[in-house]
Amino acid sequence: MKIIISGAYTIGSYLARLLSRNKQDIVLMDECSENLEKISNEADLLTMEGSTTSIKNLKEAGAEDADLFIAVTPDESKNIAACVLAHQLGTKKTVARVDNPEYVEPSNQELFHQMGVSSIIYPELLAAKDIINGLKMSWVRQRWDVHDGALVMLGIKLRESCEILDRPLKEISGPDDPYHVVAIKHNDETIIPGGNDTLQLYDLAYFMTTKQYIPYVRKIVGKEHYVDVQNVIFMGGGKTAARAVRMLPEYMHAKIIEQDPTRCEELNNILDEDTLVINGDGRDIGLLQEEGIRNTQAFVSLTSNAETNILACLTAKRMGVRKTVAAVENFDYVGTAESLDIGTIINKKAVAASHIYQMMLDANVENIRFLMSVNADVAEFVPSPDAKITRKVVRELNLPRGVTIGGLVRNGEGMLVSGNTQIEAGDSVVVFCYNVDMKKVEKLFM
């Protein structure tokens, strides 16, 4: 697959490294040679210095026969213009990163399609949605809804109160049980589990269930004593924080601690008067105490510095906050954050990459999510008529190693999948993949 990436910044560079590992034909374009020098030594790809709003440069990069053009520079106008030009030159699909939330509204998508922009991504909005999903359920690390919650995936850290530890999964999660364990992070190892595997203390386990059985899962993992989030303190008042505060449910109340006085004024102008904006340092224990940290159920640190966010969350935990969320854009710190039991980790690069990765597949894919904690992908495929996956029951499909099917949605109803399940064309099928080329999985659904 031939892919052109415009912008060797954080998201573009991350995508280039990720896709080059999958042996894709990558050209990374940027107007700054310094941005290109480092990555050219780290990844198997071509780099090109030039402007992606130049027709000549686009032709030299191969836009006339490219499969995918990804524009992720900091300039949204350039990104949109570059996608329009690439499309007119012959590129099959285009993706533009934007900073204007108006552009991602469903009512405006057809306009961009007509212009030649196949998909719009707003990383701050995607990250804010992940934050809100985590805050709505204080006892989970990660939540992912399929078809408005017909199926639900829950990432849960297992503590001493969990009542299903140390027992083979075939005893606690059979065909008649209302949940499946689809992935486990044990120490540094990711496991796509079989019937003989067990859940261990401090594992991060991913459960697939249906909405009505969420309380049951909460009970068996011993999280009923976790209080629901009502008060949230955000440290760092950037775009992601502002977007997340606007999306908070009505029953949640937020405070934002921001060091920059000018940004504080801006936040006061764009946010509801119910949101208290405080000029200060969220690592200041005296300030946290003054602002009621001990009566706060969640602390979200979204500064541009990963170390600051990790330390701030550790401080909040020591002061009794149960739910903490940290923005960790530097992947070198993700493992550190997990080992320190920080809680939910937000990475805009990974969120954006998941959305873009979906564009690479030819099968009907509703959604893809990269799960950083287990280094795995979860995808929602819709099989076409006479697809290979519809020809046999699940136990006879001989799925690739590292692949498991968590559940499916049929006619709006979620159901878990067992070995005797017959998948049908039109189902939305949730597939977990670990160390597997997604293109191999895709062939099962075409």
UniProtKB/TrEMBL annotation:
Residues 1-121, 229-346 form the RCK N-terminal domain. Pfam families: TrkA_C, TrkA_N. The keyword Transmembrane helix does not apply. It comes from the Bacteria. GO terms for cellular component: plasma membrane. PROSITE patterns: RCK_C, RCK_N. The keyword ATP-binding does not apply. Keywords: Ion transport, NAD, Potassium, Potassium transport, Transport. GO terms for molecular function: potassium ion transmembrane transporter activity. Gene3D superfamilies: NAD(P)-binding Rossmann-like Domain (3.40.50.720), Regulator of K+ conductance, C-terminal domain (3.30.70.1450). PANTHER family: POTASSIUM CHANNEL PROTEIN 2-RELATED-RELATED (PTHR43833), TRK SYSTEM POTASSIUM UPTAKE PROTEIN TRKA (PTHR43833:SF5). This is Trk system potassium uptake protein TrkA.
